Structures are given as structure tokens and as C-alpha cells.
Amino acid sequence: MSAKPEAFGSAVHTLKEDQMTERREQQVSFFARNHLEAYDEVAFMREALKEAAAAAAEGEVPVGCVLVCPLTLRVVGRGRNKTNEKRNATRHCEFEAIDDFLRSAAERNLPVLNIHNFPASCSLTSGQHGDAGREAVPPLLCKGGILKSEAIELLRRFYARGNPNAPECKRKRPIESAAEGAAGCGGEEGAALPRHDWL
């Protein structure tokens, strides 16, 4: 007799999962039909780039992220790399953006979030993307090359001045202040940076 309640419980669980999947597909379909034309991925990447620039100004590797709710087309979380500031190698921009979202919108139940990440998402944090108030994660869609030249220039400026948090034995050039590094980065005051083969 105990098999019947277990089978019933399993059937109810399967039905709930199917309903959640159907609701999620409807939400994604709604987004695709109603917001795709208005969705300005360049504007959102610019916001991520601003976070990356702020990280560089603080002596962090220039990496930034914004979380976007596709139903409202609003940024709901922001983050920048803070691994040096917090002395924690896991404090990547994605974690910071998710924490910002959770702090500011803990009471909201947003069904879907889009993540705009500069540069591309790393393997350490890609699993974390599903934990920002989400029960399941649809396949991650990635699109590269948005604001590519701005992104490369920001990384060049950072690495041209040297990473002040790198161990001395790993440094390949003397460390400049953030202001010194910015002055020699192709602006009116400085010359263009040398091209590095890896950028």
C-alpha cells in the first residue's frame, strides 16, 4: 500500500516540474516576442564596461557585470571584480552583481535574469548564474564581440601599467599609478600603447 502514496507523490512532483518548465518557456517566448527588438545589448554592455573601468580605477582587473531583467529591460544588479579588495579569489564581478541584486531586490521574485558580463563569463562563475533566485537555468546563450575594441583597450591600459597585486616575481614591468597608466593610453596626452600579440 505504501507504493501508491509514493507513486502519487512522484506524479505530483513530475507535474509541478512540467508546469514550471512550461511557465519558463512562456516567459522566454514572451521576452522573444515583445522585447527582443527593444533589447539594447550594446547599452547594457556599456554599463558592464563602466563597472570594469571602475574596477581598474580601484586597482582591480577590469571586469564588470550587470544583471538585466528582460521583462522590464532594467539593470537589477551591478558588480565589478573585487578579488583584491576583499582578499578573496572568488569575488568575481558576477558574484558581486548577484549579491547586489539579492541585497536590493530580496523581496522580488523575478523569473528571468540576463547577465551581461565583460569580458566573457569564466568557468568559475558560470555555475553561480543559476543561484540568483532561480530554480533552474535554461541553456546559457553567449554572444561575443560586443564593444570589442573598448574592451581590449581597457585591458591594455590595465596591463600596460602593471598589475599592482601580482606577485613581484610575476611582474614584467614596473608598476605605474592608475593616473599614470591612463595618461599614456592613446589619449590626447599620451601615445598609443604597443600592441600585444595576445590581445
TrEMBL record:
The keyword Heme does not apply. It holds the Pfam family dCMP_cyt_deam_1. GO terms for molecular function: tRNA-specific adenosine-34 deaminase activity. Keywords: Hydrolase. InterPro entries: CMP_dCMP_dom, Cytidine_deaminase-like. Residues 1-20, 180-199 are annotated as: Disordered. Residues 39-162 form the CMP/dCMP-type deaminase domain. PROSITE patterns: CYT_DCMP_DEAMINASES_2 (PS51747). GO terms for biological process: tRNA wobble adenosine to inosine editing. The lineage of its organism: Eukaryota, Sar, Alveolata, Apicomplexa, Conoidasida. This is CMP dCMP zinc-binding protein.
